[in-house]
Amino acid sequence: MLSRQEALALANVTGPDLHALCESAAQVRDICYGQQLTYSRKVFIPLTNMCRDSCGYCTFVKTPESGQAWYLTPDEVMDIVQRGEQLGCKEALFSLGEKPELKYSYARDRLQTLGYSSTVDYLHDVAAQVIDQSYLLPHINAGTLDKDDVRRLKPVAASMGMMLENISRRLLRKGMAHHACPDKVPQARLKTIEYAGQLDVPFTTGILIGIGESWEERIESLLAINEMHLYYGHVQEVIVQNFRAKAGTAMADHTEPDLDDMRRTLAVARLLLHPSISLQAPPNLEQHYGAYVSAGINDWGGISPLTIDHINPERAWPQISSLQQACQGKGYQLRERLTVYPRYLQQSERYLDDSISPFISGMAASNGLAAQQCLPD
């Protein structure tokens, strides 16, 4: 395992040294997770695409003036869920903009039409409807939340998540990726992760690389996540996500991380983070699947046979069969998991609300993975 100083010294490692670093990370992965990689079969539910933040790389967020802003209705949500059920999906990923009602009267009006005054209140009830009317398990990614919000959402969420992205306040400056983004203040995001730990919520977080951060800031972000997990034990997975430039954004011409940068970051993440934290990389943002496996990942995250990645709509999900072939080519089996990882299912009385546990018990095999493994697409 790496120390902070050892990790910092690897900023520019390349060639044979990078290969050796990846081999070390892969060995740790093999010891902890064996010869299998996992994924979650999901539907993506973009409950609202309005947000009070204006990240320099985002095309998901729409303003009321664009004519493209929405809140999905409960019927629209359930239509996605029901079609996902028919395709064997088991996770309903709620992803949404942060607190748009604090910025836009249009968002407040739309919520009022739906019978609510806040996005979190609406999210709670729609997630509860998914539990009541389907067998999909909600995973809630609602951005920064206060402790009461996390407490309220836990009974309607099998797991929750929020990307830390980076702990650098420098990225809040004018001209940087997080300028004019009140919910990207690092301390606010760290507090959300901490609240989830205090309330024993299985949590997903991660870093976004290539948005103007330094290597040191990248390492400090991983260490901050690890420190939180060592104290609370609730971080079930960390995502290392590579920035992709999008036309029409402030960062449209910003340089993207290359494959070596991803391999380097993934390997260092595996050797910095506690082994109980799963390491994930999105497979639709880079198609060098074998290189990711060799760098130490053990999970591909959520993949949908139905819905697009609304955050990166130009990047189609890979077919499950393609990932299976890549895994087998490296000597691994691809297995379907639930949105909650096995080690948290084993402590369900601590990590899962009584309203969630009965549903999961019938969906999980004895090893904690999905009992009914869907055939590759």
Automatic annotation (TrEMBL):
Catalytic reaction annotation: 5-amino-5-(4-hydroxybenzyl)-6-(D-ribitylimino)-5,6-dihydrouracil + S-adenosyl-L-methionine = 7,8-didemethyl-8-hydroxy-5-deazariboflavin + 5'-deoxyadenosine + L-methionine + NH4(+) + H(+)
In terms of Gene3D superfamilies, this protein maps to:
Aldolase class I (3.20.20.70)
Q: In which pathway does it act?
A: Cofactor biosynthesis; coenzyme F0 biosynthesis
Tell me the superkingdom of the source: Bacteria
| The protein's enzyme class | lyase
The UniProt record lists the Radical SAM core domain at: 37-284
Enumerate the UniProt keywords alphabetically.
4Fe-4S, Iron, Iron-sulfur, Lyase, Metal-binding, S-adenosyl-L-methionine
Its needed co-factors are: [4Fe-4S] cluster
Provide the E.C. number(s) assigned to this enzyme.
4.3.1.32
The cross-references to Pfam families, in alphabetical order and at most eight, read:
Radical_SAM
SUPFAM superfamilies noted in UniProt: Radical SAM enzymes (SSF102114)
Protein name in UniProt:
7,8-didemethyl-8-hydroxy-5-deazariboflavin synthase
